[in-house]
Amino acid sequence: MPTAGIVLAAGDGSRLGGRAKALLPHRGRPLLHTVVDALLGGGCDEVVVVVGAFGDEVAAACPAGATAVHNPDWSDGMSTSLRRGVDAARTHDRVALTVVDFPGITADLVRHVLDEHRPGTVTLPVFGDRPGHPVVFDLADALTAAGEAIGDEGARSFLARNRDRVRRVDCRDLAEAGDVDTPEDLGRLR
User: How many domains, the chain?
Assistant: First the structure.
């Protein structure tokens, strides 16, 4: 099933002191590379990276297999990036949505979540009791979630309204959970 990976990487990193999270060093290269490689290695046919605050720098750092899509409205919240990313992925049957600041993502995790996805559902990896990424949507659901999203919430409201269709997949043995949001989280990059 043709699958696009979507990486939300448009924020200004304000809680991290105004740094581009996509460019944080991770295993000797930008964190963005880890995320893109995991999506491609896990079964995505292409990866769309939504850029904004540090658009030129992040777009220049996109590795092979990734296409940067600029979101000029990034400061209006994650919902605008979700819309840009899903719109760029319209030629695929499903999307695997993730944030750029998830250093624990691996190809094995992505592959597992894609394998567990069933049409008509939304597949949500969970790490213990914490939801995580990548979240897999059929294209129609991704378009609906993006169209309904407001401000900085992303797909959260869509998932809450469609709770009965969300397949929670236990992934605690496949990745270290946790995003890099604040300086205290930088240890997750090691």
Answer: 1
